[in-house]
Amino acid sequence: MAWAIKSTESFIIALKEYKKNKLLLDALDKKFIRLKEDPHSVGGMLSGKLHGLQSTRLIRRFRLLFRLDEPNSIVYLIAIDHRSSAYD
């Protein structure tokens, strides 16, 4: 079963900062394919104040944060940022 991917407003705002980074956008496209097929095999669970979210590495030190809505088979994209500030 294919999962739907939905972007949150915070994700769209963050993505605008990196719209000229072709390498990052290509990595994000590839990650979308994996998230649609099986989001459980992508990334790992976060703890603490980010409990309930998952994180996966994109290029170099960039991270994609997302949340799964199991009953509805939806992946919500929460944020994309440099590793040093993605977990703040």
Q: Going across the major beta sheet, what is the strand order?
A: 1-5-4-3-2
In total, how many beta strands?
5
Q: What's the helix count?
A: 3
> What portion of residues belong to β-strands?
25-35%
Given helix and strand content, the structural type is alpha+beta
**Major beta-sheet overview:** 5 strands, mixed
- How many domains comprise the coordinates? 1
Give the terminus-to-terminus CA distance: 33 Å
Query: What string gives the helices and strands in order?
Result: EHHEEEEH
- The average pLDDT value, as a whole number, equals 91
Compact overview of the structure:
This protein has 88 residues and is α+β, with helices and mostly antiparallel strands. The protein has one domain. The protein has helices spanning 9-17, 22-37, 83-86, and strands at residues 4-7, 44-45, 54-57, 62-69, 74-82.
Structural features, described:
The chain has 88 residues and is an alpha+beta fold. It has one domain. The protein is built from three helices and five strands. Strands 1-5-4-3-2 form a five-stranded mixed beta sheet. The relative contact order is 0.24. The mean pLDDT is 91.
Question: Topology, please?
Answer:
Layout: E1 4-7, H1 9-17, H2 22-37, E2 44-45, E3 54-57, E4 62-69, E5 74-82, H3 83-86
Parallel strand pairs: 1-5
Antiparallel strand pairs: 2-3, 3-4, 4-5
Summarize this structure as a short list of keywords or feature phrases:
globular, 5 strands, 88 residues, five-stranded mixed beta sheet
